[in-house]
């Protein structure tokens, strides 16, 4: 891979933002436990990477407090949110106070991460590698466990939350 010799122009950057806004993505909350406390952040840049072995790819902003807690071998969880969990997505998307503060976020410790109650999809993972990716870091994760409750997914498209309906 090679780096750009120069920064893209403002029109290219704006056009890129618009193209990406037109891509529907799943909404998930990535979590881990550190010092016995849960930590998490909302992501829309998450995808499967490999089936053999099972792996995922998650993109985290370099300024993410969660990223600072991850290193090779660290357990983390992917809580794949459902259509009724917009408030949860927004809560974990905000920077600032602890998203787990208070009693209104139900969770349990599982495989070294915080599993959010009511999330239709759950992946228990371990960091395989951290890879530089511009203003983000790509977390490659080995999937150690998975479970699903069938439910419509929460998606992000055109800068809005929604869901996907199969046709």
Give an overview of the whole structure.
This protein has 167 residues and is mainly β. The chain has helices at residues 10-21, 86-93, and strands at 25-26, 28-34, 37-43, 46-51, 54-61, 75-80, 107-110, 113-116, 121-133, 136-148, 155-157, 160-162. The protein has one domain (25-157): Electron Transport, Fmn-binding Protein, Chain A (Pnp Oxidase, Chain A). The strands form three sheets. Strands 3-2-6-9-10-5-4 form a seven-stranded antiparallel sheet. A three-stranded antiparallel sheet has the order 1-11-12, with no helix packed on it. The longest helix has 12 residues, at 10-21. The N and C termini lie far apart (38 Å). The mean pLDDT is 89. This is NADH-FMN oxidoreductase RutF, flavin reductase (DIM6/NTAB) family.
Please specify the SSE layout and strand pairing.
Elements: H1 10-21, E1 25-26, E2 28-34, E3 37-43, E4 46-51, E5 54-61, E6 75-80, H2 86-93, E7 107-110, E8 113-116, E9 121-133, E10 136-148, E11 155-157, E12 160-162
The quaternary organization reads as single chain
Largest sheet: 7 strands, antiparallel
Report low-confidence residues grouped into runs of 5 or more. Answer: none
Q: What does the overall shape look like? A: globular
- Give the integer mean of the pLDDT values: 89
The CATH homology group name: Electron Transport, Fmn-binding Protein, Chain A
Strand content: over 45%
Distance between the termini: 38 Å
Instruction: Give the tally of structural domains.
Output: 1
Helix content: 10-25%
By secondary-structure content and strand pairing, the structural class works out as mainly beta
Tell me the series of helices and strands, N- to C-terminal. HEEEEEEHEEEEEE
Query: How many β-strand runs?
Result: 12
């Amino acid at each position: 891979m090679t780096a750009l010799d120069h920064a893209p122009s403002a029109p290219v950057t704006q056009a890129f933002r618009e193209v990406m806004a037109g891509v529907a993505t799943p909404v998930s909350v990535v979590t881990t436990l550190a010092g016995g406390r849960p930590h998490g952040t909302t992501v829309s840049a998450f995808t499967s990477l490999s089936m053999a072995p099972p792996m995922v790819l998650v993109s985290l902003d370099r300024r993410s407090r969660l990223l600072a807690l991850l290193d090779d071998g660290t357990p983390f969880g992917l809580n794949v949110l459902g259509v009724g969990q917009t408030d949860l997505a927004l809560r974990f998307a905000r920077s600032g106070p602890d998203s787990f503060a208070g009693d209104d976020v139900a969770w349990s410790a599982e495989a070294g991460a915080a599993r959010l109650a009511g999330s239709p999809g759950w992946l228990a993972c371990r960091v395989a590698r951290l890879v530089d990716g511009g203003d983000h870091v790509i977390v490659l994760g080995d999937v150690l466990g998975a479970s699903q409750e069938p439910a419509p997914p929460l998606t992000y498209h055109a800068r809005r939350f929604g869901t996907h309906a199969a046709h």
